[in-house]
Design a protein that fits this description.
With about 110 residues, the protein is an alpha/beta fold. A 4-stranded parallel sheet has the order 1-2-3-4, with no helix packed on it. It is globular.
């Protein structure tokens, strides 16, 4: 994702009080979220108290990006649904998510 767009999403989510669902699924290759972008989303998830659904499907996010997300979700208390369809993770990334779900009982839907 271009730096300006990533900064806008980051800023909006930091101060979000009304957005409950966010889909950042790629529709065109110029808007892909990579591991660095996933880390920025993870930073926001630590503090965000309203987002309930997050879709990061079809982005080139690898185990590194998922590790950032999983760590953040250990402390997030509002997210209920995380969609990561067709991303680039291995068993290591899946294990990070499993560890996260052992701590965060609020998330009930991961795909």
């Amino acid at each position: 994702m271009c730096m300006r767009a990533c900064m806008c999403v980051h800023a909006c989510l930091c101060f979000n009080e009304y957005l409950f669902e966010l889909s950042l699924m790629i529709l065109q290759s110029f808007a892909e979220l990579d591991d660095n972008d996933a880390a920025k989303v993870a930073e926001v998830l630590v503090h965000n108290t309203t987002l309930k659904r997050l879709d990061l499907s079809t982005n080139p996010i690898t185990d590194d990006g998922v590790q950032h997300l999983a760590e953040a979700l250990k402390t997030n208390s509002t997210l209920e649904c995380l969609t990561l369809d067709s991303i680039l993770i291995t068993n290591q990334g899946v294990l990070c998510l499993v560890d996260c779900l052992k701590v965060n009982k609020r998330i009930s839907d991961v795909s």
